[in-house]
Predict the 3D structure of the following.
Amino acid sequence: MAVPKHRTSKAKRNSRQSANDKRFLGELSLCPQCGIEKLPHRVCPQCGFYKDRVVKAPKNQNA
């Protein structure tokens, strides 16, 4: 069985793992308030809602 001769550095390991993390966005869910796609369990970037309440001020479209 093969055994590594040298320890893999943190930078080498993390750069290899981060390349795979960037490929997949994951499942998207619809915001119940405005209907755009967003990541689940996160504040909606469009309207600022999370779990039926306003968490942060929504972004203005005119600005």
Observations:
- The longest strand covers residues 29-30.
